[in-house]
């Protein structure tokens, strides 16, 4: 898979590599599908992780390991949405706000996870190119995906917090395409947040028997 780490093209003086471009395009599609509450968001998320895992495996062990975790969470999300009984009239999952205990648990997990992963990255520099912000983005991504798997509106807020660090960090480290994609992520996050917020206020509205979905 060495070709995936080769240059695809140059944009505004920045060298765009195939793995960075492919993985992040799939990530954008994943977020758009998540906005639509489509079950397909999880297979595409898994595929995105698989592409990046293949690109990093044997070259950047830490990055490959992070993608393996992302793929595992994607499988969990698929399982959660498949088994959910809380569906709206269109057959898709019904968004909801997290309870205060759930919010506290996610914040605690994010804080503890970021510290633990950052210390791991610091102890083994080969695992990361910038331990603390990299740990923040990685743990934030996992927390966001978990909240999405549970149908929580808060998953959009988690993505927004990840974006605030991800955009400047990717540009600073030469991952220009990731930086551009994170900017688009920001716009999708705001639109998706609004849509899920409104839907959560309406509550589930079961379809009438015999009516089209």
UniProtKB/TrEMBL annotation:
Localisation: Cell membrane
Residue ranges of the TM segments: 12-33, 40-60, 104-124, 136-162, 174-193
Keywords associated with the record: Cell membrane, Membrane, Transmembrane, Transmembrane helix, Transport
Membrane topology qualifier: Multi-pass membrane protein
Superkingdom of the organism of origin: Bacteria
GO molecular function, one term: nicotinamide riboside transmembrane transporter activity
Xref: InterPro entries: NMN_transpt_PnuC
CC terms in the record's Gene Ontology section: plasma membrane
Similarity comment: family membership: Belongs to the nicotinamide ribonucleoside (NR) uptake permease (TC 4.B.1) family.
Identification of the protein by name: Membrane protein
């Amino acid at each position: 898979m060495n070709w995936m780490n080769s240059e695809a093209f140059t944009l505004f003086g920045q060298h765009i590599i195939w793995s960075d471009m492919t993985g992040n395009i799939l990530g954008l599609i994943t977020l758009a599908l998540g906005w639509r509450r489509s079950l397909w968001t999880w297979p595409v998320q898994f595929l995105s992780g698989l592409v990046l895992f293949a690109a990093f495996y044997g070259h950047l062990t830490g990055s490959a390991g992070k993608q393996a975790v992302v793929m595992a969470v994607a499988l969990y999300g698929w399982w959660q949405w498949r088994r959910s009984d809380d569906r709206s009239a269109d057959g898709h999952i019904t968004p909801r706000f997290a309870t205060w205990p759930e919010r506290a648990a996610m914040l605690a997990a994010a804080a503890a996870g970021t510290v633990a992963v950052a210390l791991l990255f610091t102890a083994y520099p080969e695992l990361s190119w910038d331990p603390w912000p990299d740990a923040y983005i990685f743990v934030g991504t996992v927390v966001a995906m978990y909240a999405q798997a549970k149908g929580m509106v808060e998953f959009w807020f988690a993505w927004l917090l990840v974006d605030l660090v991800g955009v400047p960090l990717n540009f600073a480290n030469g991952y220009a395409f990731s930086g551009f994609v994170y900017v688009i992520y920001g716009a999708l996050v705001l639109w998706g947040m609004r849509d899920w917020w409104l839907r959560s206020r309406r509550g589930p509205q079961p379809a009438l028997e015999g009516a089209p979905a």
